[in-house]
Amino acid sequence: MLYSEMSKEELRREMAELQRKGREAYERENWSEYEIYMTRWYLAKSYEIKDDVHIEIGRTYRIAEEYDRLTVTAIEGVMAWGIRQMTGETAAVPIAQLEETDEA
Predict the structure, then answer these.
(1) How do beta strands 60-63 and 90-94 pair?
(2) pTM exceeds 0.90, yes or no
(3) Could you read off the pLDDT of 62-102 as tens digits, one per residue?
(4) Contacts of range 99-104, beta carbons closer than 8 Å, 24 or more positions apart
(5) In 3-state terms, what secondary structure has residue 47?
(6) How many CB atoms lie within 10 A of CB 61?
């Protein structure tokens, strides 16, 4: 089932399972598998919070799990598009992975 078709309760169950699998991958030091589970977790979380979160166009946010920031230029569904500060490249990041900074 697609995340967009899941209820909030189904999304929460999926996120718990992804966290479990991610923790196991982390313990095995399988970093690529861990990253996949974390990305999927952020996507599921984005669908859970999409009606309750407000991402501002033009604002810069920290990207959780990374040492980078994203200046948002557009929102499409649960993805925030913008420019990465460290590379200047355009990227899409799940809205749940954005953390507010003190910057406006």
Answers:
(1) unpaired
(2) no
(3) 999 899 999 999 999 999 999 999 999 999 999 999 998 76
(4) 99/61, 99/62, 99/63, 99/64, 100/61, 100/62, 101/60, 101/61, 101/62, 101/69, 103/59, 103/60, 104/59
(5) helix
(6) 21
**Beta-sheet strand order (sheet of 60-63):** 90-94, 79-84, 69-76, 60-63, 98-100
SS3 sequence of 2-38:
CHHHCCHHHHHHHHHHHHHHHHHHHHCCCHHHHHHHH
Classified as helix, coil or strand, 91 is: strand
pLDDT in tens, 35-65: 999 999 999 999 999 999 999 999 999 999 8
% helix, strand, coil for the chain, step of 5: 45, 25, 30
Which residues have CB under 8 Å from 74's CB, separation 6+? 57, 80, 81, 82
Query: What are the C-alpha distances in Å from 60 to residues 49, 51, 83?
Result: 19, 20, 9
